[in-house]
Design a protein that fits this description.
The chain is an alpha+beta fold and about 475 residues long. The protein contains 11 helices and 8 strands. The strands form 2 sheets. Strands 2-3-4-5-7-8 form a 6-stranded antiparallel beta sheet. It starts with a helix and ends in an 8-residue tail after the last helix.
Amino acid sequence: MREIALIVLISLFGKCLHGQEQKLTMTEYLGLIKEYHPIALQAGLNSDRAFLQRRQALGGFDPKIEVNGGQKTYDGKEYYNYVIPEVKVPLWYGIDLKANHTQYKGNYVNPENKVPEDGLSYFGVSVPLGRGLFLDERRAALRQAAVFGKQARAEQQQMLNNLFISAAQVYTEWMNAWLNRRVYADAVELAKVRLEGTRTLFRNGDKPAIDTIEATVLLQSREQRLAEYTLALTNKRNELASYLWLENLSPVDPQKLSVYPDTALIYERAPEDLLNRDLNQVLQSSLDVQLSRLKIDQLDIERRLKLEEVKPDLNLNIGVLNKGFNPVRNFDPDYFVNNQKLGFTVAFPLTFTKQRAAYSLSRLKIREAEYSLSDKQNAVTVKWSNYLNEYSVLNSLLASNAEIQKSNRQLLQGEEIKFRFGDSSIFMINSREQKVLETQEKLYDLYSKRIKVIQSLKWLVNDLEQNK
C-alpha cells in the first residue's frame, strides 16, 4: 500500500517530470485516503480504545495486597500491636483466594486475637452463593469489553466506509465532468473549423451569410457549455483534493493536483456474487445491523447483572490456619478439621424494590434496542431493493441510449454526405451533431450513476474494495 501511495503522491504533488498528468485510479485514490485522511486515522483509534477497554476490565482480576495494622500504648503499657498483611487473588465465577499472616502482641490483647509467637497464617477462599454466583461486575465488565471490541471494529469500518463512499462519489463526479469537458473541447474545435470553412464558402459566394451566423451561434453555445464543464471540473477537482492529505496532516493543494481519472471505470459492472446475495446475507453483512445486534448483546449482559442483584447476598468464607508464614504446612483433611476458620454473611432487602425496578428497566432498554434493530433491518432491506432496481434500470437505459447514440452518429454521417452533394444545410448538420453531443452527455451521466449505485451496493454490505 505504501509503495502505491508514494508513487501516486509523487505525481499528485507536482514532482512528476515536465508537469505531465498522471492517471489516478479509484483504488489508488481510496488507498491514499485510507492511509492519510484524518478521519481514517481517527477510525484507527477505535482499535486502541477497544484494547484499553479490555485491559481495564482485566484489571478487575488483578491481585491485591492490603496491610492492616494498629498499636495502642497507654501509661507506658503496650495494650496491643498488630500487623496483618493480606493478599487477595480474584478468580473467575466470583471466587476470591485469600492469604494473610497475623502478628498480634500486647498485654491486653483480646483472647480471640491471640496468635502463636511466630504469627498465624491463613489461606482460604471466599465464594458467593447468592448474588454474584453466575455473574458479577468484574466478569460483566470483561464480557462487555469483548463486545465493545467487536463494536469498535464495526464502528471503525463504518467510519471508513462512509468516508470511502463519499470520496468515491466525488471521484465519479470528477470523472464525469472530465469526460464531458473533453467532449465539448473537441466539439468547440470542430465548430471553429466549421465556422472558418463557412466563412470561406461565403466569401467565395457558395453559401449565404446566414450560414456564417449559424456557425457562429453554434460555436458560442458550445464554448458556453465548455465553460460550464470547465467550472464543474475545477470544483470537483477541489473536492477531490479535499480528501487527499500528506503524512504531516496537511491537505493537498488543488493547484498541484496533476492527475486525470481512470475512464475505464465507466464500463464497470457489479459482480454477480454481489447481485445474487440473498436478504439474510445482506442483513448479516450490514454494519448498521451488526452494531444494533452488538448493542443488544451489551444490554443483555447488563440485564443479567441486574438479575443477579435481585438475589440476596450470601458469601461463604472458608480457610485453613497454620503457625508461622506457611499457611499450607501439614495440610490434610484431619488437620483442616482442627485448624480452620469459617464464616458467612447474609444480607438482603425485604422488598428488592430498587433491584427489581433496575432489572425491569434493563429489559425495557433491550426491547427498545430490538425495535431499533427491526427498523434498521427494514431500512437496509428497502435500500438493497432500491439499489438493485436502480442498477437494473440503469443497465437498460445505458443499452437503449447506446443504440440511440449509434443511430444519431449514423444520421450525422448521412447528413454530412448529403451536405457534400448540396442536399443539406449547416443547420441540419448542427442539429444532428447536437443530438450526438446530448446523447453522449446522457451516456456519461448514466455511467456515473451506475458507478455510484455499484459503490452503494458494496457499501451497504461492507464489501468496498478497500476493505478486502
